[in-house]
Specification:
This protein has a single domain (8-156), classed as Roll (Pnp Oxidase, Chain A), CATH 2.30.110. Helices cover 12% and strands 41% of the residues. The protein is built from 3 helices and 12 strands, in the order H-E-E-E-E-E-H-E-H-E-E-E-E-E-E. Bound molecules: flavin mononucleotide (FMN). Flavin mononucleotide (FMN) binds next to strand 3 and strand 5. Flavin mononucleotide (FMN) is lined by residues 22, 36-40, 54-56, 59-60, 84, 88-89, 148.
């Protein structure tokens, strides 16, 4: 931001420089699964295990969560771009939705990680609300994730860049998985 001017488009562009994965947040309401694409998914605490999602106050999920108080997070695999588009409200031809269920919460089949969360707090924050939840169940596998960067989907390119090891500390939130051998 320069001087007193605040350009929303440039703000979005700057935010887009933060690379993320892509998740679909799901919940079961009146016995039907509902989902929305979200990349504002954050790891919050290890003990107790907490995560959050930041949801637009205009979204259907924001309307449903105060009633269901539980949500699932499916971290999409790199071949699940169509699911991301579908749950972001775009029309996708020939899409077959397949859900799996964990602890009564629907999740998307084929995702690279799942979290089932009990909402413990909701913080209004501008035009979004932060839904903080306690993780009741999680799973993950080694498939490659879908990435989102600069407003576009991206894939990991391990052939181009050699991953750099992060200094490990098993007590840090940012060393989750540090008990596994580092990828070289
Ligand atoms: C890659 C991607 C990430 C998104 N992340 C978020 C997010 O973190 N929070 C949010 O409120 N909307 C996010 N959206 C937009 C919602 O997915 C979109 O507005 C969706 O249609 C809302 O669901 P609804 O139409 O059922 O209300 C994202 C969209 C895309 C494509």
């Amino acid at each position: 931001m320069s001087g007193s001017s605040f350009d929303p488009r440039q703000f979005r562009n700057a935010l887009g420089r933060f690379a993320s994965g892509v998740t679909v947040v799901t919940t079961r309401y009146e016995d039907r699964p509902h989902g929305m694409t979200a990349n504002a998914f954050v790891s919050v605490s290890l003990d107790p295990p907490l995560v959050l999602v930041s949801l637009d106050n205009r979204s259907n999920m924001h309307r449903l969560l105060p009633a269901t108080l539980r949500y699932g997070v499916s971290v999409l695999a790199e071949h699940q771009e169509k699911l991301s588009n579908h749950f972001a409200g775009r029309t996708v031809e020939g899409l077959h939705l397949r859900f799996v269920e964990r602890q009564g919460v629907p999740l998307l089949e084929g995702a690279v990680a799942y979290f089932v969360v009990q909402v413990i707090d909701a913080h209004p924050a501008g035009d979004h609300t932060l839904y903080i939840g306690r993780v009741e169940h999680f799973e993950s596998n080694d498939e490659r994730p879908l990435l989102f960067y600069s407003g576009q989907y991206q894939h990991l390119r391990p052939d181009r860049a050699k991953p750099t090891a992060w200094p490990q500390d098993e007590f840090s939130l940012f060393s989750i998985g540090s008990l596994d051998p580092p990828i070289t």
